[in-house]
Amino acid sequence: MAQHSIDPENLPYDPSKLPRKQDVTGPDFFAIDMRVGRVVEARPFPEARNPAYQLVVDFGPVVGRLQTSAQVTNYSTDELIGRLVVGAINLGIRRVAGFESQFLVLGGLWPDGTVNLLSPDFDLPVGAVVA
């Protein structure tokens, strides 16, 4: 599935429909830089094709603040601001409706594609590496 979509009728992310992906090597997996960050801004993104927010996340003193577009409108902006999230920060920059998306925020998907954001159980420092 190339593009994430939310589809309550077809349930594209129903676990019973999804085959296991091919194995990758340890070096391939560990090449992805995943970090803990704190959402510091969340605003509606009306220009996006699908309902989304523009998020600014603080990943600490080394990485700094990065922005992304995320289809997480099942959360209110108040629920997002201050929340710890996990982001893959070295996947390159993508343009989304003229907006520069600098990282991928990670979440688990309900069968219909609704995103449930991943966050650590504890109040880890921003910039903490995810292993």
Keywords summarizing the entry:
mainly beta; five-stranded antiparallel β-sheet; OB fold (Dihydrolipoamide Acetyltransferase, E2P); two-stranded antiparallel ribbon; 131 residues; 10% helix
Short description:
This protein has about 130 residues and is mostly beta strands. The chain is built from three helices and nine strands; from the N terminus they run H-E-E-H-E-H-E-E-E-E-E-E.
Write a structural description.
The protein has 131 residues and is mainly beta. It has a domain of 86 residues: Beta Barrel (OB fold (Dihydrolipoamide Acetyltransferase, E2P)). It has three helices and nine strands, in the order H-E-E-H-E-H-E-E-E-E-E-E. The strands form three sheets. It has a five-stranded antiparallel sheet. Strands 5-6 form a two-stranded antiparallel ribbon. A two-stranded antiparallel ribbon has the order 8-9. The longest helix has 5 residues. The protein is globular, with a radius of gyration of 15 Å. The mean pLDDT is 94.
